[in-house]
Write a structure and sequence with these properties.
By secondary structure, this protein is an alpha+beta fold. The protein is about 25% helix and about 25% strand. Strands 1-2-3-4-5-7-6 form a seven-stranded mixed beta sheet, with helices on both faces. It starts with a strand and ends with a strand.
């Protein structure tokens, strides 16, 4: 499946919301309330588990409007079928202070989350999103990019950080563990 990949901008927020409010979580409605805000959320200043979906939706809209939430939308014609939350690592509250050894945090890109509509899965949408993000990170002059694929994904939904095999095919190397459930992979740009 060939899709058009466009950057998330304030004037495209409706596409992001259409995917999140519609087909994106058709097979996993329990996760639909995040709106990809988790890594932008100040976990020291609040209780994420009790944040209602409406608040996350409004918060994501604010992050999109001010340019904080960055990423890419995959379009099949006019229909959004994929999303990749990707930006500079220091743009995420959750990753501040976690620099690549010997590198400045602002020289590192972060691939955080993919959302591919069930009808578009297994058709190369995530790969196209990743390749676009890597090209963008290179154009920005970043030195590194990191991601944290699941160690043992049980479902397509639990692979939302992107499959390890996709990263390895694109030259990422294993860099250790991000957590008990996630690998840390890294690519020198």
């Amino acid at each position: 499946m060939t899709v058009e990949i466009v950057p998330l901008t304030p004037d495209r927020a409706h596409l992001f919301l259409e995917l999140f409010d519609g087909e994106g979580f058709a097979d996993n409605p329990g996760w639909s309330g995040c709106y990809c805000r988790f890594y932008h959320y100040d976990h020291d200043g609040g209780d994420w588990e009790n944040v209602p979906a409406a608040e996350n939706r409004a918060g994501a809209c604010d992050l999109i409007a001010d340019g904080t939430m960055r990423g890419w939308i995959a379009l099949d014609g006019q229909r959004p079928v994929g999303w990749l939350n990707a930006g500079r690592k220091d743009g995420y509250c959750a990753f501040r202070g976690e620099d690549v050894p010997g590198e400045a945090g602002d020289a590192t890109g972060m691939i955080t989350c993919f959302l591919v509509a069930p009808s578009a899965r297994g058709k190369g949408v995530a790969r196209q999103l990743l390749e676009t993000a890597l090209d963008d990170f290179r154009a920005q002059g970043l030195s590194w990019v990191e991601a944290k694929p699941a160690k043992s994904p049980q479902t397509a939904a639990s692979n939302y950080h992107g499959p390890l095999s996709m990263y390895l095919k694109h030259g990422f190397e294993m860099a250790g563990d991000f957590s008990e459930y996630q690998h840390l992979v890294r690519l020198a740009l």
